[in-house]
Amino acid sequence: MTTPSIPPAGPPAGWYPSQSDLSTQVYWDGSAWTGQTRPVATPAPVTGPPGTRAGTGAYAGLFHDGKKWLNADGSRANIKGIRPAPPPGGSGRSAGRTIGGIAALIVAGLAGMQALSWLQGFLELDQQGNGFAGILVPMGLAAGAVAAGFGIWGVMLLSKK
Questions:
Q1: Please, which of 48, 80, 97, 122 could form a disulfide with 136 given CB 3.0 to 4.6 Å?
Q2: Inter-residue contact 48 to 70 (CB < 8 Å)
Q3: Residue 117: inside a domain
Q4: Which helix (H) or strand (E) holds 63?
Q5: Which residue range is the domain that position 77 belongs to?
Q6: Is the distance from CB of 76 to CB of 68 less than 8 angstroms?
Q7: Is 106 in the same domain as 153?
Q8: Co-location of 86 and 102 in the same domain
């Protein structure tokens, strides 16, 4: 009775990354390195339909034409189950717009309070017969205009496009 030979354990014959140069591969014949080398093959970049931009993350391999997500062949991509993200180029409100809008509303509130304070001061001084109190009216109106301007600007910054 003959005993079957057991092949030595080890990796199968094939091309493997070089330990000394990651841009090349070396050939293993199943028992020893042969000394043959070749450059690492780089896959060709996937391009989409004309006028589209490549997606990233969950949208990798898909392309956006400004309205919808497409496959590389131009067919509409099935993105059910993928959390929607703004299309390339962005369409959401940035953190800068949010902070700017909140700051504008704070300035509007402070200017509005100052306008009311000056107008109230005018009424009190005018009741005492002080002729110089008239300067508080234009100052109050100017502060009111500043408050309105910053309020409108803040709302515009915080609202979506």
A1: 122
A2: yes
A3: yes
A4: strand 63-64
A5: 47-91
A6: yes
A7: yes
A8: no
